[in-house]
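Figure 3 (text version): C-alpha cells given as input.
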C-alpha cells in the first residue's frame, strides 16, 4: 500500500514538473514599430512617437514611444502570461535588469529583416537587436545566476514581428533592392535573414519562438491613400496584399524546415493576416466603426509620427481599427493579442 502511494506521489511529482516546465518566465521581443515599446526614444532617428497625441490612452496618458494611442499587442501578450502588463524597452535607462527579467523589448520602429531597411530612417537593425540580446543575457546571468538565467532563456517566449517596412519603406519606396531583386527574390532574401536570425537566437538558448506574419499591408490607410487610379483610392492595394500572403507562405515553409532540423525547438507562426483581414472586411462585427482611415490627424490617411500632432485627431480611438496611417489602435492591438494567445501561443500557456 505504501509503495503504491509512493508511486502515485512520484507520478504527481512528474506531472507537476512537466506543468511547470511549460510556463513562460519572460517575453523577449524583436521587431519594428508594431512592437517597439520605446527604444527609438533613445537613438538618433526621426521615427519617434514620444509626444502627444500618441499614448493618450496609455496609463497616465503618457506618450511612451509606442506607435499607438495605448498599449501594443506584445504588452497584452505579456499580461496574458501573467508577466509584466507592459514590455519595457531595453534602451530605457529608467528600467533595470530586474524589470527585463520578466519582459524586454529590443525592437525599433522603421526596422526590418533587411539591414538596408533600418538604414532608411536610422533605426536599430536586426543584427544590433541581436547584440543587445547578447548583452542582456550577460546581465541576466549576473542577476539570476548561471543556472537560473539559462532556464529563463530556454523557457522564455521570443516574439519576432517585422517585414512590412522591408516592402513599404524600402523595396517599393527607395531605389536599390528593387533594381537588384524581383519581388519573389526579395522575399527569399528576407526569409534567408529570418532563418539565420532564428538559428542565432537558438544557438544562444532560445527554444520557444513565434514568427509573426505580415498583415494585409495593402489595406493600411497610407497605402489606400496612394493607390492608383484615384477613383479606387479607398480600395486596398491588392498587389501588396498578395506579396504579404506569399511572404507568409514562405515563412511557414521556413518553420517546417527548422522544425525538422531542430527537434527540440518550438517554432510557431502567428497568422495575423487572416484575422486582420476579417476585421477590415467587417469592422462592426468587432466593435469598430472606421477601418479605412486612422484616428490621428486631420485626414487619417497620411498622418503618422510628427504629423499626428494635428488638432483634429478623433475623440474616441476605440471606434477605429487604425490609430495613424499605419499602426493599430490599442483596441485592435488587444484583439490581435487575444487572437494570437488563444491560437498560436496557447501551447505555451
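Below: residues designed for each position.
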Amino acid at each position: 500500500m505504501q509503495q503504491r502511494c509512493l508511486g502515485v506521489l512520484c507520478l504527481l511529482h512528474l506531472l507537476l514538473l512537466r506543468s511547470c516546465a511549460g510556463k513562460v518566465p519572460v517575453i523577449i521581443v524583436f521587431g519594428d514599430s508594431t512592437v517597439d515599446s520605446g527604444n527609438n526614444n533613445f537613438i538618433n532617428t526621426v521615427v519617434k512617437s514620444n509626444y502627444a497625441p500618441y499614448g493618450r490612452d496609455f496609463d497616465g496618458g503618457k506618450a511612451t514611444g509606442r506607435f499607438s494611442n495605448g498599449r501594443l499587442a506584445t504588452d497584452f501578450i505579456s499580461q496574458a502570461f501573467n508577466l509584466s502588463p507592459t514590455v519595457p524597452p531595453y534602451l530605457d535607462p529608467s528600467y533595470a535588469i530586474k524589470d527585463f527579467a520578466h519582459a524586454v523589448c529590443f525592437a525599433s520602429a522603421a526596422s526590418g529583416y533587411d539591414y538596408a531597411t533600418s538604414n532608411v530612417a536610422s533605426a536599430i537593425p536586426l543584427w544590433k537587436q541581436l547584440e543587445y540580446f547578447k548583452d542582456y543575457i550577460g546581465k541576466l546571468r549576473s542577476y539570476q545566476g548561471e543556472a537560473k538565467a539559462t532556464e529563463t532563456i530556454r523557457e522564455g517566449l521570443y516574439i519576432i514581428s517585422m517585414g512590412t517596412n522591408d516592402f513599404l519603406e524600402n523595396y517599393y519606396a527607395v531605389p536599390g533592392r528593387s533594381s537588384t531583386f524581383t519581388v519573389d527574390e526579395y522575399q527569399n532574401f528576407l526569409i534567408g535573414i529570418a532563418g539565420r536570425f532564428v538559428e542565432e537566437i537558438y544557438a544562444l538558448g532560445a527554444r520557444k519562438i513565434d514568427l509573426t506574419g505580415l498583415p494585409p499591408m495593402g489595406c493600411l490607410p497610407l497605402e489606400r491613400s496612394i493607390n492608383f487610379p484615384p477613383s479606387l483610392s479607398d480600395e486596398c492595394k491588392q498587389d501588396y496584399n498578395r506579396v504579404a500572403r506569399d511572404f507568409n507562405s514562405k515563412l511557414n515553409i521556413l518553420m517546417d524546415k527548422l522544425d525538422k532540423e531542430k527537434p527540440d525547438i518550438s517554432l510557431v507562426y502567428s497568422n495575423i493576416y487572416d484575422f486582420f483581414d476579417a476585421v477590415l472586411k467587417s469592422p462592426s462585427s468587432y466593435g469598430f466603426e472606421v477601418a479605412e482611415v486612422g484616428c490621428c490627424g486631420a485626414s487619417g490617411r497620411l498622418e503618422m509620427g510628427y504629423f499626428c500632432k494635428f488638432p483634429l485627431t478623433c475623440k474616441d480611438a476605440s471606434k477605429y481599427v487604425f490609430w495613424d496611417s499605419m499602426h493599430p489602435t490599442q483596441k485592435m492591438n488587444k484583439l490581435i493579442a487575444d487572437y494570437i494567445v488563444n491560437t498560436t501561443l496557447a501551447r505555451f500557456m
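The mean pLDDT is 91.
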